[in-house]
Design brief:
The chain is an alpha/beta fold and 653 residues long. The chain has 3 domains: 4-81 and 261-518, Rossmann fold, CATH 3.40.50.12780; 113-254, Rossmann fold; 526-648, ANL, C-terminal domain (GMP Synthetase, Chain A, domain 3). It contains 21 helices and 30 strands. Helix 5 (82-95) runs parallel beside helix 12 (314-326), helix 6 crosses helix 7 and helix 14 packs across helix 16 (396-406). The chain starts with a helix and ends in a 5-residue tail after the last helix. It binds 5'-O-[(S)-butoxy(hydroxy)phosphoryl]adenosine.
């Protein structure tokens, strides 16, 4: 019974309560009242122009916004350089010795990178890229662990006006090759490997498998990280440190147009083919700098900010690299997993660096909950003053645990809703001004307008429906690389005149927004977006599979888990081993993140009389619910059989 008091705390919930900003936080907050919302609603385009002036422009824009729905151009005629805004201007202002990143490798090695040091490396690597033939307008693929060379490579691209396409290091060789091909990237920047849970992730082997089949790749640059011995292909592959030696230390920043392509980032949708989301220069940097500053209440002189995402996702692009550096902030960059060497690694990092702001995902918070409050309790977390959440709806239990056990009941929790496509945070509290409700992302930020609409596209003032955005915003995607029609079709056709985000949402009686998850065939596993269609097509691409249907089922830790219902071709036996083989196959086609948690073998899938798979019923089965309406089912006995099989299917954690 010694456990009782702790249990009492852990079951305490703030659900249903409204929490005013704590006085201690509010007194120094950048925004303490509604005035910024008022300003923005009086003149929303003027509001964004004001925010853009926080950047340094070589040439100011002449056209603030051209809106030819769904194509936006922001700050037309304006010229700027992203690396200049992230680095040179801070160094010129005397902040060269300020720490840009406290980097920590998983094995415990560390590097302190100042703004001057970062500028130096970025210029040199920009010259390296040029020496390899990269020109303004080209694309560079980046496939790296969380090492300082990753932001260096990104910023070096922006310096010379090349667009980067960062591919998360957990993606497979096939996935990397597809993305290289789509972008026609000339150069691939990678590493021999990275450290993860004490083991080497052999990135170079995957990079080779991809580059060998990618005709556009002329050069591969390899950072030495794990030093485990890799093959280097003569003439194509070069060590980073060799190329950096003896290269010129200065590189003038290119004067880029506000609308020049800054980067591509691939994300899954409802089809099997990932989309290359395009972000451009001026609008993107304006909104990431603005949101980073005000949502996280950044005081660049005193804050130590840690966004614990991977740079391979949009969260890392916007809130590890571009937003924080544009604001001259000090950040933490950590390579590895939270449980290496022990389950208190994050809390140890926070204590040692005096982290003041932590930004992470609900799935991580729920994992920490599972590990127990004793882990953070081993460390002094009193430096923290603000907590953030992103990637999926945060359940009130996880919110409360985060608030209590990490924030010590003193730190506001900002739940931030946005997407790869939006580029920057769209719906979120401003922590000194917004009364919080645990589990709600609260309100659209100043300058942003969101509406929830019903099936017919009619706005609902209160209640549930589809989340839409009703006007352009500076960091909005400019399209899907190479496919303007797909851009229009995917985001702007379901509700004419509106951007449809793919999410369901509800507005409560006080006008608060509650995000309810995806309403399309997209799953959210640990905050990562995975398409059911993409996993299905990876499965049917295996010679043993006749048919596959994939659904996301609620999972207490990862938000959703991937459940695959598979029908095998005649000669193949359903067995645990075969399930393992198919899981591995999906990991090879897409990446370990897409590996199904459960594979249910079945002789048939539930279909309508016209042959359409009824996923709704499969979701009911996967989540152990009683079945919804089955009247349109061609053969009702099929589901009974599937239910039986699902109950005994092995599940992998
Ligand atoms: C999808 C976007 C934005 C960076 C991470 C994911 C879900 C994101 C929240 C939130 C509820 C959220 C949505 C969205 N999502 N943040 N605070 N509350 N849902 O980027 O891979 O582009 O996925 O993540 O479903 O559409 P992404």
């Amino acid at each position: 019974m010694a456990d009782e008091p702790r249990q009492a705390i852990e079951s305490f919930s703030l659900e249903g309560r409204t929490l005013l900003p704590p006085d201690d936080f509010k007194k120094d907050a950048l925004v303490r009242d509604q005035s910024m919302y008022d300003q923005a609603s009086e003149d929303w385009t003027g509001f964004w122009a004001t925010q853009a002036l926080a950047l340094d422009w070589f040439e100011e824009w002449d056209t603030l916004l051209e809106w030819d729905l769904p194509f936006a151009r922001w700050f037309g005629g304006g010229q700027l350089n992203v690396s200049y805004n992230c680095l040179d201007r801070h160094v010129a202002a005397g902040k060269g010795d300020k720490v840009a990143f406290h980097w920590e490798g998983e094995p415990g090695d560390t590097r302190t990178i100042t703004y001057a040091g970062l500028l130096d490396e970025v210029q040199r690597f920009a010259n390296v890229l040029r020496s390899l033939g990269v020109q303004r307008g080209d694309r560079v693929a980046i496939y790296m662990p969380m090492v300082p060379e990753l932001p260096v490579a990104m910023l070096a691209c922006t310096r010379i006006g090349a667009a980067h396409s960062v591919v998360f290091g957990g993606f497979s060789a096939d996935a990397l090759r597809d993305r290289i091909d789509d972008a026609a990237a000339k150069v691939l920047v990678t590493a021999d490997g990275g450290w993860r849970r004490g083991a080497v992730v052999p990135l170079k082997a995957s990079a080779d498998a991809a580059a060998d089949q990618a005709p556009t790749i002329e050069h591969v640059v390899v950072v030495r990280r794990t030093d485990h011995g890799v093959d280097m292909k003569e003439g194509r592959d070069h060590w980073w440190h060799d190329l950096m030696e003896g290269v010129a230390v200065e590189c003038e920043p290119e004067r880029m147009d506000a609308e020049d392509l800054l980067y591509l980032l691939y994300t899954s949708g409802t089809t099997a083919r990932p989309k290359g989301i395009m972000h451009t220069t001026g609008g993107y940097l304006t909104q990431v700098a603005f949101t980073h500053k005000y949502v996280f209440d950044i005081k660049p002189d005193t804050d130590v900010y840690w966004c614990a995402a991977d740079i391979g996702w949009v969260t890392g692009h916007s809130y590890i690299v571009y937003g924080p550096l544009a604001n001259g902030c000090t950040g933490v960059l950590y390579e590895g997993t939270p449980d290496f060497p022990a389950r208190d690694r994050w809390w140890d990092i926070i204590e040692r660096y005096g982290v003041t702001i932590l930004y992470t995902a609900p799935t991580a918070i729920r994992t920490f909950m599972k590990w127990g409050g004793q882990e953070p309790a081993k460390h002094d977390l009193s430096s923290l003053r603000l907590l953030g959440s992103v990637g999926e709806p945060i359940n009130p239990e996880a919110w409360t645990w985060y608030w209590e056990h990490i924030g010590g009941g003193r730190c506001p929790v900002v739940d931030t809703w946005w997407q790869t496509e939006t580029g920057a945070i769209m719906i979120s509290p401003l922590p000194g001004a917004t009364a919080l409700k645990p589990g709600s992302a609260t309100f659209p930020l100043p300058g942003v307008e969101a509406e929830v609409v019903d099936d017919q596209g009619k706005p609902v003032e209160r209640g549930g429906g589809y989340l839409t955005l009703t006007r352009p915003w500076p960091s909005m995607l400019r399209g899907i690389y190479g496919d303007p029609e797909r851009y229009r079709e995917t985001y702007w056709s379901r509700f004419p005149g509106r951007y449809f985000a793919g999410d369901g949402a509800r507005i409560d009686d006080d006008g608060y927004y509650w995000l309810l998850g995806r309403v399309d065939d997209v799953m959210n596993v640990s905050g990562h977006r995975i398409s059911t269609t993409e996993v299905e097509s990876a499965l049917v691409d295996h010679h043993s599979v006749a048919e596959a249907a994939v659904v996301g089922a609620a999972d207490a830790t990862t938000g959703q888990g991937i459940i695959a219902f598979v029908t095998l071709r005649g000669d193949f036996e359903s067995s645990d081993e075969h399930g393992q083989l198919l899981r591995k196959h999906v990991a090879t086609r897409i990446g370990a993140i897409a590996r199904p948690k459960t594979i249910v073998f079945t002789d048939d899938l539930p279909k309508t009389r016209s042959g359409k798979i009824m996923r709704r019923l499969l979701r009911d089965v996967a989540e152990g619910r009683s079945l919804g309406d089955t009247t349109t089912l061609a053969d009702a006995s099929v589901v009974e059989e599937i239910k039986r099989r699902a109950a005994s299917a092995p599940t992998e954690d």
